[in-house]
């Protein structure tokens, strides 16, 4: 069991006591977001210009200081995206990635960006194997293109690529060259993610001592899971610009996650940024949705479980005082605390979850509900919100009619037709008929239901999980859906031999809970539970 110790950092006052000698934080840390460039280099991610604009606008609203919008010379689409972003006249500085190549800088200029992140190889490995030039030539190219970009009015953030594996004396030489050519900021990237926090601190301290007054940036990769720690160490050594991505997207294992760096600065080091932290979660959701890269449930700050409590001991304490088991107040990052019911749940947690549904059982009833929840949990089954509600209603003896009823469902699928579904739903006394297409019969059915419901309530399907309980083509299929309406999230299950019906049943049950309508136990039985 966790120990109640001083790991409760609920206010900015909870800072680590650093002596002045160790702490070289700049007065103002600038957040440089590269979700749209390094983040887009995440395997499997490719964003359309329209999606890039949506993300850029969100980043601007979030308070990011510099947005690296892409690599202008990469493609036509990329150039279009950056142009669209610069046209938005956002508050943030808009930056394009560029190599030490004239065409790259010209492409950036065409997009009307404020700055370039000009990256030129600095390590011998990169110079020899990739660049196939000598160190002298690298210095000449650096001088020439920093000057070229400066002459054309760009802010130049110079990145000596693979800096952390380069020879320190040559690294200093290339930085010196870039600075004399007019570079405004120097960001020596940890291209392959090999720093440790100790080395990051010493590395940046040495560079800052060699180049007093120069603005340094830090760009870390998460190959060892240390990107956030290394970024913080560099900032502690006086780097002023932090390269980050939303949800830690980026090449290979990704970059330092924006949400982690910002919240750690705020709560653990008492250093503020211009980020409006209450928008962190919605920004994460948007980026996840548009990139198609889900966030792992146990991800810090933005993961589904980051503010969810199941264990009985924890939930009881949380209800008394949330700081017992929460390091960060969920509201601070735009989230809400969630208590879920499972085999670890205690009676207090179950009562709290029921209260949220507007159900107030007696002590006796609560005991019986508690016993049945444990029984399901012990069988290795997940107890969904719909299950809890159904159990409670059965125990309390409430039996009320389902408010939203599925009256009819027709699905057409095959190799020569677009899967199409039509539904007729009875909502209170109104009958709504809708039709929709989908990639398959399940998708079509879900889309049709969503369309019909959306007219009344904006309900979003957040997650869809399916598993076959038995084998064979007539297997019983279990579908669990997670639905969201505003802040409220519910889970519901549907079980049926027909995957479309299992999905539709799960969806209908979830929607009814979200709409505050009750279920009768007979509805559950028809689903074969
Ligand atoms: Mn990178």
Tell me what the structure shows.
The chain is an alpha/beta fold and 529 residues long. The chain has 3 domains: 24-291, Aldolase class I (TIM Barrel, Alpha-Beta Barrel), CATH 3.20.20.70; 308-396, Recoverin, domain 1; 404-528, Double Stranded RNA Binding Domain (2-Layer Sandwich). 38% of the residues lie in helices and 18% in strands. The protein contains 17 helices and 16 strands. It has helices at residues 49-62, 76-87, 102-110, 124-131, 135-151, 168-180, 197-210, 227-236, 258-268, 280-291, 312-320, 347-356, 363-378, 385-396, 441-454, 499-514, 521-526; strands at residues 30-33, 66-70, 93-99, 115-121, 155-161, 185-186, 215-219, 241-244, 308-309, 338-339, 404-412, 420-427, 430-437, 460-468, 477-485, 488-496. The strands form 4 sheets. The chain has an 8-stranded parallel barrel, surrounded by 8 helices. A 3-stranded antiparallel β-sheet has the order 11-12-13. A 3-stranded antiparallel β-sheet has the order 14-15-16. α11 links the parallel β9 (308-309) and β10 (338-339). α1 runs parallel beside α2. The longest helix has 17 residues, at 135-151. It is elongated, with a radius of gyration of 27 Å. Mean pLDDT is 88; it is low at 1-13 and 518-529. Manganese (II) ion (MN) is lined by residues 38, 189, 219, 221, 251.
């Amino acid at each position: 069991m966790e120990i109640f110790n001083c790991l409760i950092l609920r206010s900015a006052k909870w800072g680590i006591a650093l002596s002045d000698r160790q702490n070289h934080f700049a007065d103002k840390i600038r957040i440089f977001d590269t979700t749209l460039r390094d983040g887009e280099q995440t395997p499997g991610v490719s964003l359309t210009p329209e999606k890039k604009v949506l993300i850029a606008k969100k980043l601007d609203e979030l308070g990011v200081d510099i947005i690296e919008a892409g690599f202008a010379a990469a493609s036509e689409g990329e150039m279009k995206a950056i142009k669209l972003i610069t046209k938005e006249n956002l508050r943030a500085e808009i930056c394009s990635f560029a190599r030490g190549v004239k065409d790259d800088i010209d492409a950036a200029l065409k997009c009307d960006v404020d700055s370039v992140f000009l990256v030129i190889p600095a390590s011998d490995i990169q110079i020899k194997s990739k660049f196939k030039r000598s160190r002298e030539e690298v210095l000449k190219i650096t001088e020439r293109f920093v000057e070229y970009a400066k002459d054309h009015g760009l802010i130049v953030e110079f990145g000596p690529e693979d800096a952390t594996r380069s020879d320190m004396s040559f690294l200093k030489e290339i930085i010196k060259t870039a600075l004399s050519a007019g570079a405004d900021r120097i960001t020596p990237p940890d291209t392959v993610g090999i720093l440790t926090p100790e080395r990051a601190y010493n590395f940046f301290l040495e560079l800052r001592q060699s180049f007093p007054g120069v603005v340094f940036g830090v760009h870390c990769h998460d190959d060892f899971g240390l990107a956030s720690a290394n970024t913080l160490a560099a900032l502690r050594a006086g780097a002023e610009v932090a390269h980050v991505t939303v949800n830690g997207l980026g090449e290979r294992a990704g970059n330092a996650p924006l949400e982690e760096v910002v919240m750690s600065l705020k709560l653990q080091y008492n250093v503020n940024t211009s980020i409006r932290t209450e928008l962190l979660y919605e920004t994460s959701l948007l980026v996840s949705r548009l990139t198609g890269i889900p966030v792992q449930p146990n991800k810090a700050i933005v993961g589904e479980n980051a503010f969810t409590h199941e264990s009985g001991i924890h939930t009881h304490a949380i209800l008394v005082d949330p700081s017992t088991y929460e390091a960060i107040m969920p509201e601070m990052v735009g989230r809400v605390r969630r208590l879920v019911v499972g085999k670890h749940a205690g009676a207090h947690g179950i009562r709290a979850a029921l209260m949220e549904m507007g159900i107030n059982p007696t002590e006796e009833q609560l005991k019986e509900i508690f016993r049945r929840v444990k029984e399901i949990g012990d069988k290795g089954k997940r107890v969904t919100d719909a299950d809890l509600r159904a159990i409670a209603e059965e125990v309390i003896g409430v039996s009320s009619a389902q408010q939203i009823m599925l009256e009819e469902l027709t699905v057409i699928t095959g190799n020569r037709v677009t899967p199409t579904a039509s539904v007729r739903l009875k909502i209170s006394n109104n009958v709504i008929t809708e039709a929709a297409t989908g990639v398959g019969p399940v998708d079509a059915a879900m889309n049709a239901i969503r369309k019909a419901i959306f007219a009344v309530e904006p309900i979003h399907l957040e997650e869809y999980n399916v598993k076959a309980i038995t084998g064979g083509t007539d297997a019983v299929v279990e579908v669990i859906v997670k639905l969201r309406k505003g802040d409220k999230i519910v889970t519901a299950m549907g079980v049926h031999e027909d995957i479309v019906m299992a999905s539709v049943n799960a969806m209908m049950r979830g929607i009814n809970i979200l709409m505050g309508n009750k279920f009768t136990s007979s509805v559950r039985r028809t689903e074969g539970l």
